[in-house]
Write a structure and sequence with these properties.
single chain, 599 residues, alpha+beta, Rossmann fold, Elongation Factor Tu (Ef-tu), domain 3, Alpha-Beta Plaits, 5 domains, 6-stranded mixed sheet, 14 helices, 34% strand, globular
C-alpha cells in the first residue's frame, strides 16, 4: 500500500482539470501518442462539445519516480460545475489526497473555495497546482497570495505548470508520490469496499467501480451490498486503464471495477458498501450523502407509445447519474412521464440532451420549478414542486420559497452592471469584498426560483464572460407565490401551468401567450390564449382564424345580400368555436420552454 496513491483533481470550471489529466496519462505512458486526443477521460460527445466534464472518470497509472520506485496512481478526474458537485463528493470519498488546480489568469474562484471545503470535510491532503502559466495575462505571484489568503494552503508548495504545453508535469507527479499520503487499510480485516460509481454494459450487466478500504476481493467470492442486502458472486475484478484490465484480486487501498452478474440497476445504490457475507465488516463506509435536488421538471415522451423506452432509458441513466431523483407522473395533455429532480439547470439540460442522443428519445419538458413549503389554514405543512398539486389559494396560510447565498466573482469594471442585475433578481443583503487588485466578490441572498432560468447567462453577458457564479442553499423565506394557469380556448393546459413570484407573473404569462400564439397553427375559428391567476386574466394573445371570402360569388345586387352571407358565416364560426377542439402540437410545449431559457 505504500506504493499506491489515490487522488482526485478538483477545480473551478475551465481551470484545466481535464488537460492536466491528459498530460499525467501521457507522462506515465498509459497511451500511445497516435491514440492520444484531448479530454481522453471524457467519454461522452456532449462533454467534448461543451468542453466540460459531466461524469467523474478514473484511471490507474504506473509511474516510476526519480528515486527509481514503482508507484500505482489511481487518478479520478472530476467535474467543475456546481451542478455536478455530487459527482465530486462521491469521487473524493475514494481518494486520500487531491490536486487543487487554480488558473494563473483567473485566480481563486467560487467553486475552488467550495471544492476546498469539500476536500477538508473528508480530511484529504491538498496539493495546490497553478495552471496556464504560459498565458500572457498569467500572474503567478498574485495567485500564490490568493492561495495563501483565500485557501489557507502553503503558497510556496504550489506547483506552477502549463498543462497545455506540458511544462513541469514531472514536478506534479513527484509531488503526488512525495506529498500525498498512501491509503490506510488492513489487508487481514473483513472486506469493506465503497461503491463510488457504476455504469451499465449491455453484455456484462452492471459494472461497479469501488475503492477497497479493508480486506481483498477476488473472482469467485460471495459479496453483499450492505444497504440493499443483495448477494452476488464475483465473476471478474480489475482496474481501469482506459480499457478494463482483468486482475487476480483487488486489495485494500486499490481502486478498480467488479463484475458480479448484476442484471438490473435497481439492485445496487451508489455510496453503498460491499462486504463478504461469510465474514461481514462491522459497519459501512461513512461519509456518503444523498443528493438533494433543487430544480424539478416533468419529462414526457413526444409520442405516448415511447413511454416504455423512456422508462428503460431513465433507469440506465439514473445508474450513471446518482444525483437524479425521479418518480412517475402523468398529464392530461401529454400522457405518462416522469417528475425529475436535478441539482441545477445545467444538470437538467445535460440530462435531456443525453436522453435524446444516447437513447434517441424525442421529449417534452415542463417548466423547471423549485420546492416550495406551503402552510395550509389547518396547520398542515406541504412541500410542493408540481403546479398541478398546488392547493386552493383560500386554503393557503403561508408560502415559503428557497433562498440561496450567491457568490459572484467579477472584474471591478463590471461592478455597476452586476449590481443592477442582482437587484433585478430580487437580491438582498448585498456585500462586496476585494479579493485582489481589480477583482471583487459580491455576496447576496437571492430567491432560487428567479436565478434558475437565465441568471448565469445574463451574468456572463454583462461581464463579457469574466464573471463566475456559485451558490449554496441558505433557508426558506416567506414569499408571494402564485400559480399561473395557461388557458387555450378557455381550457386549462396542466402541463403549461407554473409557480412564480407575484411580481413576475404577468411578464412570464405574456411571454407564454405570445410564444404559443406563434407555435399553434391557425384554425377555422378564433383561439384566445390566456394567462390567469385563479379567475383573473393577466395576459392574452389571440390566434386569428382562417377566413373564406364568402362574398366572392356575388356579382351585384343589394348590400343586404352581402351582409346576410357574412352573418351566416359569423354564426357558423361561433358554433365551431363552441364545439371545435384546438389541436396543440407537441412543438408548442417545447417552444415555450426553449424561448424561456434562451431569453
Amino acid at each position: 500500500m505504500h506504493h499506491i496513491r489515490n487522488f482526485g483533481i478538483i477545480a473551478h470550471v475551465d481551470h484545466g482539470k481535464s488537460t492536466l489529466a491528459d498530460r499525467l496519462i501521457q507522462a506515465c505512458g498509459a497511451i500511445q501518442e497516435r491514440e492520444m486526443r484531448d479530454q481522453i477521460l471524457d467519454s461522452m460527445d456532449i462533454e467534448r462539445e461543451r468542453g466540460i466534464t459531466i461524469k467523474s472518470n478514473s484511471i490507474t497509472l504506473a509511474y516510476t519516480s526519480r528515486a527509481g520506485r514503482q508507484y500505482e496512481l489511481n487518478l479520478i478526474d472530476t467535474p467543475g460545475h456546481v451542478d455536478f458537485s455530487h459527482e465530486v463528493r462521491r469521487s473524493l470519498l475514494a481518494c486520500d489526497g487531491a490536486l487543487l488546480v487554480v488558473d494563473a489568469t483567473q485566480g481563486v474562484e467560487a467553486q475552488t473555495v467550495a471544492n476546498l471545503y469539500l476536500a477538508m470535510e473528508y480530511d484529504l491532503t491538498l496539493l495546490p497546482v497553478i495552471n496556464k502559466i504560459d498565458l500572457a495575462s498569467a500572474d503567478v505571484e498574485r495567485v500564490r497570495e490568493e492561495i495563501d489568503a483565500d485557501l489557507g494552503l502553503d503558497p510556496f508548495g504550489a506547483v506552477a505548470i502549463s498543462a497545455k504545453n506540458g511544462t513541469n508535469i514531472d514536478e506534479v507527479l513527484e509531488a503526488i508520490v512525495n506529498r500525498l499520503p498512501p491509503p490506510r487499510g488492513d489487508l487481514q480485516a473483513p472486506l469493506k469496499a465503497l461503491v463510488f460509481d457504476a455504469y451499465y454494459d449491455r453484455f456484462r450487466g452492471v459494472i461497479v467501480l469501488c475503492r477497497v478500504m479493508d480486506g481483498a476481493i477476488r473472482p469467485g467470492d460471495a459479496i453483499r451490498f450492505m444497504h440493499g442486502g443483495q448477494e452476488f458472486q464475483v465473476l471478474e475484478v480489475g482496474q481501469n486503464k482506459l480499457e478494463r484490465c482483468k486482475t487476480t484480486s483487488l486489495s485494500a487501498g486499490e481502486v478498480g471495477y467488479v463484475i458480479a452478474g448484476i442484471k438490473t440497476i435497481r439492485e445496487i445504490a451508489v455510496g453503498d458498501t460491499i462486504t463478504n457475507p461469510m465474514a461481514p465488516t462491522a459497519e459501512p463506509v461513512p461519509g456518503y450523502k444523498a443528493a438533494k435536488p433543487v430544480v424539478f421538471s416533468s419529462i414526457y415522451p413526444m409520442e405516448a407509445a415511447d413511454y416504455p423506452e423512456l422508462t428503460a432509458a431513465m433507469e440506465k441513466l439514473a445508474l450513471s447519474d446518482a444525483a437524479l431523483v425521479y418518480q412517475k407522473d402523468s398529464s392530461v395533455a401529454l400522457g405518462f412521464g416522469f417528475r425529475c429532480g436535478f441539482l441545477g439547470l445545467l444538470h437538467l439540460d445535460v440530462f435531456q440532451e443525453r436522453l435524446e442522443r444516447e437513447f434517441d428519445m424525442s421529449l417534452v419538458l415542463s417548466a423547471p420549478s423549485v420546492l416550495y413549503r406551503v402552510t395550509l389554514s389547518d396547520g398542515t405543512l406541504a412541500e410542493i414542486d408540481n403546479p398541478t398539486l398546488w392547493p386552493d389559494p383560500g386554503r393557503i396560510e403561508k408560502v415559503e420559497e428557497p433562498f440561496i447565498k450567491a457568490a459572484i466573482l467579477t472584474p471591478e469594471k463590471f461592478m455597476g452592471p452586476v449590481m443592477e442585475l442582482c437587484r433585478e433578481y430580487r437580491a438582498a443583503e448585498l456585500s462586496m469584498s476585494y479579493l485582489a487588485v481589480g477583482r471583487i466578490e459580491v455576496t447576496s441572498v437571492m430567491p432560487l426560483s428567479d436565478v434558475l432560468f437565465d441568471f448565469n447567462d445574463r451574468l456572463k453577458t454583462v461581464t463579457r464572460g469574466y464573471g463566475s457564479f456559485d451558490y449554496e442553499f441558505l433557508e426558506y423565506r416567506p414569499g408571494k407565490i402564485v400559480k399561473v394557469d395557461i388557458l387555450i380556448n378557455k381550457e386549462k393546459i396542466d402541463a403549461l401551468a407554473y409557480l412564480v413570484h407575484e411580481d413576475k407573473a404577468r411578464p412570464r404569462a405574456l411571454h407564454y401567450c405570445e410564444q404559443l400564439a406563434e407555435a399553434i397553427p391557425r384554425h377555422q375559428f378564433k383561439i384566445p390564449i390566456q394567462g390567469a391567476i385563479g379567475s383573473t386574466i393577466i395576459a392574452r394573445s389571440t390566434i386569428n382564424p382562417f377566413r373564406k371570402d364568402v362574398t366572392a360569388k356575388l356579382y351585384g345586387g343589394d348590400i343586404t345580400r352581402k351582409r346576410k352571407l357574412l352573418e351566416k358565416q359569423k354564426e357558423g364560426k361561433k358554433r365551431m368555436k363552441l364545439y371545435g377542439s384546438v389541436q396543440v402540437p407537441q412543438e408548442a410545449f417545447v417552444a415555450v420552454l426553449r424561448a424561456e431559457k434562451d431569453e
